[in-house]
């Protein structure tokens, strides 16, 4: 796990060096893809090596629509990810991924440099219910709803400075970022609820306000023919409470294209948010499937 993390961080650093200057184009530029990934492991009753049959799938949407006119630039990105897995003899189908995110950054170029005055907005939530799993007194699997659509939901916005070399390599720094965390108050109700236990939200409340600094970076480059690596890094420090505990959200997506419709994807994501869990959350997805680019 640690070796993979270091590999992606090295690749991100390499991307800084390898990114090439592109001649900016006026008007709208649009690019996106939809991927359907599949994975399966099957064993018959006589298999002696151990293992449990399972299958899973993941669907993802990544769409960019950017605009440039003179010294004005407006970048927009939509990300949608949802995955399920089913293990034989396990009572419930479980999620492997669930993310819905929109980011918009407006920038005004400073003379002829790569720097822009900027204002960004980011909204992030999930599609479906999320559960924690356990066992009852009889050993049966139980599940308890912990999250659902818009619980939690994160809204960030603020002014800053954008450094943009091209659409595939940019960093936005916003030192005065407002962040709202929205939740369903049913999760923060009850006599035994402790303030801040559910994504930092106090008892009986449905939202939390934070003010801090954010850094959002994106780098996409080609490792070799038909092999691309996209890196997204989001950092946030809350001035109002424990500013030293920086929230981290890094995603690396390695795409190995077979042809126009078939590809293999490896996704690595690492999240640290001490309001959710005081430890790193790690997700890895590896699969082959169908990809449609538009």
From TrEMBL:
Keywords: Signal. This is DUF3078 domain-containing protein. It comes from Leeuwenhoekiella blandensis (strain CECT 7118 / CCUG 51940 / KCTC 22103 / MED217) (Flavobacterium sp. (strain MED217)). The keyword Signal applies. InterPro entries: DUF3078. It comes from the Bacteria. Pfam families: DUF3078 (PF11276). Residues 1-19 form the signal peptide.
